[in-house]
Design a protein that fits this description.
about 100 residues; 5 helices; mainly alpha; disordered C terminus
Length: about 100
């Protein structure tokens, strides 16, 4: 017996004693949330191709392709991560400053 879930974290706890898997539709939607329907970056375009084949591949093949994608774009992803952290720090500082200004 196994369960296919929609990605709600609370459900994973309810089925902790049996094998679970997130449904392919929700896996695709989560990735799509970050890369959009019409990605412009090469990394996003390639990731969209990999995810679009999710239902037509095996787990091993999918993870291999995903690992290859990660290795190909590793430097780019690290650069984006640094930029994202800077933006978060800036937003938090700015928001805190604005909020404290009116207290």
């Amino acid at each position: 017996m196994s369960a296919t879930l929609d990605g709600k974290r609370g459900l994973y706890k309810a089925f902790k004693d049996i094998p679970i898997q997130m449904c392919h539709f929700h896996q695709k939607k989560i990735v799509q949330r970050y890369i959009t329907m019409r990605p412009k970056l090469d990394a996003s375009k390639d990731l969209k191709k990999i995810v679009s084949r999710l239902t037509q591949t095996t787990e091993k093949n999918f993870t291999t392709k995903l690992d290859e994608w990660y290795e190909m774009y590793k430097d780019f992803l690290e650069e984006i991560e640094v930029i994202f952290l800077i933006i978060l720090l800036y937003r938090n500082t700015f928001t805190t400053y604005r909020y404290n200004k009116y207290i």
